[in-house]
Design a protein that fits this description.
heterodimer, A: mainly alpha, MetI-like fold, flat, B: alpha/beta, Rossmann fold, CBS-domain, 2 domains, 6-stranded mixed sheet, 14 helices, 31% helix, globular
C-alpha cells in the first residue's frame, strides 16, 4: 500500500520535471535524433572551400577566366537545377497517379507488365536515350526533360505501388467499416500512409535526374555538362576540376535536401 | 454519459418486451468461385440493448455474418433489418456510418491523433469542430483515459489496451444504436483483456447498445454475452443464453465445442452477490462463541487478516484468503486453489467480511439468494 503511494508520487514528480524540461528536452532530443544531418553539409562546404582555395592559387588564363566567370557558372548551374526539378515534377505528376491507379482492385493485373516496362526504361542508358530522343524529336531543353522523366519514372512508380500495398489491410477495413467511401479511404488513409515510401522513391528520382542532367548538354539543353564539355574542348584542367566539384556538390546537396524533406514527412506520418 | 442521440426517438409498440434491433432473414453468402455457402440460410434476431456473441471454429462464418450486418460483405440472398428497416439495399457507406465498428487492436489510424481518430465518423456526418472535440473528450473519459493527456497523442504512443479503449470510443463516437465488434480483445494479453472486458460491460451498462460480438474464446463469450450464437461451417447450431449453452447443448457439435470444461466455465456465471453464503464472525463480538461459524481476526480497518477459529479444523493451519463480493464463484475457486485454502472469505468493497464460501459448497450445491430482480 505504502509503496504504491510513493510510486504515484514519484510518477507525478517525474511528470512535472518533464514539463519543466520539455522545451530544452525537445531541442536536445531533436538534436540527438538528427545530428547526422549536419555531416553531409559540412563535407560539401569543405569540398567547395578546398576547390576555391586551390583554384585561387592558380594563375588563370583569359579563357579560363571567361569560362569560370560567376555569371557563366551560375547560369549553367541554374539550367542544371531546372532540368532536374522540372523532370522530377513531371515524374511526380505521371508516376504517382499511375501507381495509385495500378494499386486499385480492377487494375492490379496490369501491375506486373507496367512495372516491367518501367524497369526496361530504367535499364536503358540515359545517354543513349537522350541522343535517340534528340534525333527523333529535336535538340533542346524539353527533349532532355522527356528523356530524364522516362529514365526516372520507375523508382517512383514502384514505390507508389509498394507503398500502397504495404498499408495495413485492417486499417482499410476499419475505414470502410466506419463508412468511408473507397475514395475517402484512398485519400485519408491509404495515400497518407504510403507517403513516406513514395517520397523515398521521389528522392531517388531527383538524385538520378540531377546526375543525368549533366548529359543534357550533349543535346543542347545546357546545364553543368556544358562546363565539362568546354573544359575538355579547350583542354583546361582547372575548369574541369571546378565543373566536377560543382556537379558533385550539387548532387550531394540535393540528396541532402531530399533526405531532410523525407525525414520531415516520415516524422509527420508516424 | 448523457445520451446525445441524434436519431429520433423510436416508439416501441411491443411495450415492455425488447424489440429486435438486428434481424437476419434467410441470409446466405456464397463467395464467388466456391460451391458451399460460407453462411447458409441464417435466421437470427438480436434484441435491442443485448450483447450477442458469435462464436465457432475458424471458417464457421461468424465473421462473415458480422460483416454482412454492416454490408462490408454483401449477402448473396436474404434480408437484413435494422430497427425494423430493410437495409439490404441501402447505400452501404451511409449505413456503416450509423453502425459502430470495432476490430482487433482497435484499427486506429496511425497518422491521426487520438481525438481525430474518435472524430472520424462525426466529421463524416457533418458535426462542427467544437461538438466533435467535446464528444471526443466525453468518450475518452467514458473509456477511462484522461482527455487532457491522451487527446493529442498518436496511437503508437499508447499501449495495446489503451488503443483498444480508443477503438471502442471511436465506434461510439456518433452514438450509433448498433455496434459490431470483431474479436476486439483477441490480441491483448490475458490480464489486460480481463480488465477491458469488465470495463466494456460497465460501459455497456451506461450506453445500452445492441452489440454483435465475434470471438473465438468461449470464456469471453460466457462472460460478456447475453446470448451466444454457436456457428459451425456456415450454420447456426445453437442460439441461447450462456447458461443454456453450457448446460444443455443442442447437439453433439455444440457439446464438443463447449467441451468438458462446461461445468467449470459455468462457475463464472454465478455471481457471489447472489449466493447464500455462510455467516462469518469477527473477533470483537465472537470471543469464545464457537457456535460453528468461522471466526476471523480483523485489523483496524475491519479487514480480515487471519482465522481465529474454524469449526472442525485447526485455524492456524489455514490461510485466510478473500474474494470480492462483486466476483464470481469462478474467482472464489481460483483464490482457494491458489491459497490451498478450503474456504474463502467474501469481502465487500471496503474489504469487510460478508460471508464465507466453503469448498464443499461447490459439490453439495450452491444456494442462490432470492433477489427482487
Amino acid at each position: 500500500m505504502s509503496t504504491a503511494t510513493s510510486e504515484t508520487v514519484d510518477l507525478q514528480a517525474e511528470e512535472s520535471v518533464e514539463e519543466v524540461e520539455g522545451q530544452q528536452g525537445r531541442i536536445s532530443s531533436l538534436w540527438s535524433q538528427h545530428y547526422d544531418l549536419v555531416i553531409l553539409p559540412a563535407i560539401i562546404i569543405l569540398l567547395l572551400l578546398a576547390l576555391f582555395l586551390y583554384v585561387g592559387t592558380r594563375q588563370l588564363d583569359s579563357i579560363e577566366q571567361r569560362v569560370l566567370a560567376p555569371d557563366n557558372v551560375a547560369g549553367l548551374l541554374w539550367q542544371q537545377i531546372l532540368l532536374a526539378a522540372v523532370s522530377t515534377v513531371l515524374v511526380l505528376v505521371i508516376a504517382v497517379p499511375l501507381g495509385i491507379v495500378l494499386s486499385r482492385r480492377g487494375a492490379r493485373r496490369a501491375q506486373g507488365p507496367v512495372l516491367a516496362v518501367g524497369g526496361f526504361a530504367q535499364a536503358l542508358p540515359p545517354f543513349g536515350v537522350l541522343l535517340l530522343m534528340a534525333f527523333w524529336l529535336d535538340f533542346g531543353f524539353w527533349t532532355a526533360i522527356i528523356g530524364l522523366t522516362i529514365a526516372a519514372l520507375l523508382p517512383v512508380l514502384r514505390n507508389t505501388v509498394v507503398g500502397l500495398q504495404q498499408v495495413d489491410q485492417s486499417l482499410i477495413e476499419a475505414a470502410r467499416g466506419m463508412g468511408m467511401t473507397s475514395r475517402q479511404t484512398l485519400f485519408r488513409v491509404e495515400i497518407p500512409l504510403a507517403v513516406p515510401v513514395i517520397v523515398a522513391g521521389l528522392r531517388v528520382a531527383l538524385v538520378l535526374n540531377v546526375g543525368t542532367a549533366t548529359l543534357a548538354s550533349y543535346i543542347g539543353a545546357g546545364g553543368l555538362g556544358e562546363l565539362v564539355q568546354q573544359a575538355l574542348r579547350l583542354n583546361r584542367i582547372n575548369v574541369l576540376l571546378v565543373a566536377g566539384g560543382i556537379i558533385a556538390a550539387l548532387a550531394l546537396l540535393i540528396d541532402w535536401l531530399a533526405g531532410v524533406a523525407e525525414r520531415v514527412v516520415v516524422t509527420r506520418a508516424g | 454519459m448523457s445520451e446525445t442521440t441524434d436519431q429520433p426517438v423510436v416508439e416501441t409498440p411491443q411495450g415492455a418486451g425488447k424489440p429486435d434491433m438486428i434481424v437476419l432473414e434467410g441470409v446466405e453468402k456464397i463467395y464467388p468461385g466456391s460451391e458451399a455457402p460460407a453462411v447458409s440460410q441464417l435466421d437470427m434476431a438480436i434484441p435491442q440493448g443485448e450483447i450477442v456473441m458469435l462464436i465457432g471454429p475458424s471458417g464457421c462464418g461468424k465473421t462473415t455474418t458480422l460483416k454482412m450486418i454492416n454490408r462490408l460483405i454483401e449477402p448473396t440472398s436474404g434480408r437484413i433489418l435494422l430497427d425494423g428497416k430493410d437495409v439490404t439495399h441501402v447505400n452501404g457507406d451511409q449505413l456503416r456510418r450509423e453502425i459502430g465498428y470495432v476490430i482487433q487492436q482497435g484499427g486506429l489510424f496511425p497518422h491521426f491523433s487520438i481525438a481525430d481518430n474518435i472524430g472520424v465518423v462525426p466529421k463524416m456526418v457533418g458535426w462542427d469542430k467544437q461538438r466533435i472535440r467535446e464528444r471526443a473528450d466525453e468518450l475518452l473519459h467514458l473509456v477511462g483515459l484522461e482527455p487532457s493527456v491522451f487527446r493529442d497523442r498518436y496511437p503508437r504512443q499508447l499501449s495495446g489496451g489503451q488503443q483498444q479503449r480508443v477503438g471502442v470510443a471511436r465506434a461510439l463516437a456518433a452514438d450509433p444504436p448498433v455496434m459490431l465488434m470483431d474479436e476486439p480483445f483477441g490480441a491483448i494479453d490475458p490480464i489486460t483483456r480481463d480488465r477491458l472486458q469488465d470495463e466494456f460491460l460497465e460501459i455497456q451498462r451506461t450506453v445500452g447498445k445492441t452489440i454483435a460480438f465475434v470471438t473465438h474464446d468461449l470464456q469471453e463469450a460466457v462472460k460478456l454475452g447475453d446470448k451466444i450464437a454457436v456457428f459451425a461451417t456456415g450454420r447456426l447450431e445453437q442460439y441461447d443464453d450462456p447458461n443454456t449453452i453450457l448446460t444443455r447443448p443442442a447437439n453433439d457439435f455444440v457439446s464438443d465445442f463447449v467441451g468438458g470444461g462446461a461445468a467449470v466455465r459455468r462457475l463464472s456465471l454465478l455471481e457471489l452477490s447472489r449466493l447464500e453464503l455462510h455467516p462469518i464472525e469477527t473477533d470483537e463480538k465472537a470471543v469464545g462463541n464457537s457456535n460453528g461459524s468461522p471466526v476471523a481476526e480483523v485489523d483496524a480497518s475491519g479487514k480480515p487478516v487471519s482465522w481465529r477459529h474454524l469449526p472442525g479444523a485447526d485455524a492456524a493451519g489455514v490461510a485466510l484468503v478473500t474474494v470480492p463480493l462483486s466476483g464470481t464463484v469462478y474467482d472464489a475457486v481460483d483464490v482457494m486453489l491458489d491459497g490451498s485454502a478450503s474456504l474463502v472469505a467474501v469481502v465487500d468493497e471496503e474489504g469487510r467480511p460478508q460471508g464465507v464460501l466453503h469448498w464443499n459448497d461447490l459439490v453439495s450445491g450452491l444456494r442462490t439468494r432470492e433477489r427482487d430482480a
